[in-house]
Write a structure and sequence with these properties.
By secondary structure, the chain is mostly helical. The chain has seven helices and two strands; from the N terminus they run βαααβαααα. The protein has a domain of 147 residues. The protein has a two-stranded antiparallel ribbon with strand order 1-2. Helix 1 packs antiparallel against helix 2 and helix 4 runs antiparallel to helix 5. The protein is globular and about 75 Å long. The termini are far apart.
Length: 230
């Protein structure tokens, strides 16, 4: 149970709610920090950034779940970013379930990578799961962790983003025609064939735009041929 109450009381809603827009903004910020830290690991073997990101990630989630979402640093920053947008209210309880799952994942990463100073398949899979959760939340507004709410409480969540909790028929603008699916399939086929066909010609390393060009018969740094010096 949170110390200061979980969610906000908003007129017109009979349960506590949260602003989905600032939640998505906060998820995007956490995704960016985690993804950049992963890039440092993959290309430089530098684990220092992720060892700073994980504790702040865990602390932020603990504040949301145990204290109150209104005091989460990431959510506060997200609120400042989207302050000019009309709020989109979502049920708070399912977000608490999702963030509790995030606490477990972040705590696992904290123990293994920060306290024990280790890495392996467990940390890799856990980091990947966190990135997928954050990406789906920030990019699509889909809370994957919220799907566990119905399994735990045996009831349907209320006030979901995009009203996905309420059964409804799709509007005409949401329907996908056979022609559109063919275009998508054709585009994917063109991308795959292009990668296979042009991988060789396009794999050469680009040169600096303003660097002097080197003739095809000479190599950079090679000595001039005898008799050509002036």
């Amino acid at each position: 149970m949170t110390l200061l109450g979980f969610g906000e009381v908003v007129p017109g809603y009979d349960i506590r709610v949260l602003n989905e827009r600032e939640i998505r903004a906060a998820a995007g910020l956490l995704f960016l920090a985690t993804f950049l830290s992963l890039i440092f690991i993959l290309f430089n073997g530098n684990f220092l950034p992720i060892k700073f990101v994980i504790p702040f990630f865990l602390l932020d989630l603990l504040i949301r779940v145990l204290v109150s979402p209104r005091y989460s640093p990431a959510l506060i920053l997200g609120r400042l970013i989207v302050w000019g947008q009309v709020p989109e209210y979502v049920g708070a309880q399912q977000k608490k379930v999702a963030w509790s799952i995030g606490v477990v994942l972040a705590a696992t990463m904290f123990v293994l990578m920060v306290l024990m100073n280790t890495y392996g398949p467990i940390t890799g899979i856990t980091c990947l799961v966190c990135l997928v959760f954050l990406f789906f939340e920030s990019a699509f507004g889909i809370c994957l962790g919220c799907k566990f709410y119905a399994l735990i409480y045996r009831e349907q969540a209320r006030y979901c983003p995009g009203e996905v909790c309420t059964p409804q028929s799709r509007q005409p603008i949401q329907k996908t025609s056979a022609g559109q699916l063919l275009v998508l399939a054709g585009f994917v086929a063109v991308v795959v064939l292009s990668v296979l066909a042009l991988r060789g010609p396009l794999s050469s390393k680009p040169r600096p735009l303003f660097a002097p060009q080197v003739s095809s018969g000479a190599r950079p740094g090679s000595a001039p041929a005898p008799g050509t010096e002036r």
